[in-house]
Amino acid sequence: MAKIWSESRSGHDAGHGAGQGTAARPGAVSGARRRGVLLGAALVLLAAGAVGGPPAVAADSAAVAAPLWFDGATADQVSVTGTRFADGHGREVVLRGFNVSGETKLEEYGGLPFASTADARASAAALRSLTGGNAVRFLLSWAYAEPEPGQVDTAYLDRAADQIKALLDAGLRVFPDFHQDLHSRYLFHKDSWYTGDGAPRWAVEAGGYPVENCGVCLLWGQNITQNQAVKNATRDFWNNRVLAVPTASGTRSVPVQDAFLDTAQKTMAHLAAKLTPAEFAGVVGFDPYNEPYAGEYASGQTSRTWERDRLWPFYEKFRARMDAAGWRDKPVFVEPNMFWNANLDFARQEGGLLDAGAIGSRYVFNTHFYDQKAISGVFMWGKANDGQYTTDFGTVRDRSRALNTAAIISEFGHPLTGYTSDKAPTVNKAMYQALDSRVPGASWWTAPTGSGPVLSSTQWQWDIYSGRHREAMNGNPNKILTEGDAWNDEDLSAVALDSSGRAVLRQDARLLDRLYPGAVAGRTLAFSYEDRSRDGNTVLTWNRIPDSMPSTARLVGSGRYGMLVWRSEGATRAPTQLHLPAGFTAAATTVVSDLGTVTGLPEYTARDRIADHPIASAVETGTTDARRLLLSAPAAADTAGTLHYALVADGSTAPSAELRAAAQRELAAWAAGAGFGQAS
Hints:
By secondary structure, the protein is α+β, with helices and mostly antiparallel strands. About 25% of the residues lie in helices and about 20% in strands. The protein has 17 helices and 31 strands. It has a 7-stranded antiparallel beta sheet. Strand 17 and strand 18 (about 505) form a beta hairpin. The longest helix is centred in the middle third of the chain and has 22 residues, at about 305-325.
């Protein structure tokens, strides 16, 4: 992750928001820097106390539910159809989850997200149970995959495959990511303020780069554009510089980008061989390079021409390596120039793969978004508001349509400690709101047809070792980092371990455990979710039922609710599926839909793949307690073009059958008059 206007952070606070808590363990020495400088202004931040290494992660031993007829490899596999993801049943799929994890950037567990497969399994169960996420971006390290030139460490890849299997077993889809920041940790000396990750030591040493020096860089991301060592090494990668690499058998000439591509191909082939076909079905694709940037532009080169002449050809080469490794049916998750959508004018650079044409189903438009204004503490003084990011995320939807492929925002988030952490509840709520719809809550009911597709996303990040690291920064035994992410003073993990070793959320559960349409039997036309998450004691309600729909407003009351509108394509009998957050209990949840109305969801059952109830619920695959809402339109009422809608409320009221019927009439009239077209 790179946040160019990231703040310095001097402490790790234990617990943020409802249902949260991270317990400190004694005995470790904090290695976090006591710097609080932002754009020349001194910021005094409070340190939170010493913590120690992680305890074993407590696991839930309860048995998971048996799969239903539409579950399994067919449901797990994901392809790109037009501008959407689709599963093997042809349902529109939304991927929601987290990056797992920034731990890969550290040395303490050998460049892997977890200390053990058991930790991976327990972490995956917690992610599913606490958030209902269905996907993860799984970080890998080139430095650990190829510690010596031409020699792939198969033991490292075996451990990675085992951890990926643990995530797949929990019902999570996975897309691996060869991660890098500031090119490599080996560019930084042991006393540096900063560090990187990515390229192996041999590639850096053969490059002969200057001693890293960012001058007056107060923020780690400034190294990208100001540290000459980082700039030169990054430039050399994109130009495929031939390095003279000393080996035991003599000096070898190694084109550095080709070496990376060779290792990537071997990595993908190894992972494919270690996974069963059913497991491999849950691997969505591969992200080849985190946050690409030129390093330095050649004379006459611009950010746009660099994307066209350097970045896109690299992705085409990676695509060929995927095909050769047995990943032909999985897309490449391609990232544009990392500055293309910066929300500070002086940081933004033209890009977004503008010259790639219609890249189609073998690629996914994969981008990141951080609110640099909010993180700076200077360019945005207040909190985020309703609709704050609908324009920014609308731009992602527009690029997806122009490229004729699906889009995902594979990193977003906001610091949870430090000078601007008070903005986190509103910033993250506004980001999730913009992922759900490009229409602000205040106008959603009057302009729902402008919603656009629901965007897939993976939040940065899910690190169960948050606040409990033992990382020797740049290998320096006198700089043992324990706080936050143990990485360049960052602290963004949504999870941590309590004193018993159980995973707990560090953000409001109402924000992270969300209603979302994981699989839609047709095409989503509009979706909105009012999570009623909190900013301190303030309930954030940005989408209110209009006065013209009084029965619907009474039914919802003060509780959480979501509204989905979709059009059937008549292609599958597999149901539409929405994750039900905790608190949306089967007994109390109310659904008002064209398919019927119900308070108290029956358990899903079917005969000959025909659902016994059009509105039902079931346990999520791979979990013991997370639940999903299943909406099954009868075949006679589900021909292609049929318009469907469903309001889902969490049971804060106990509506009568008469109130449900009145709300159904209001919603039917609203759907008919909103401009979606008439149901057939």
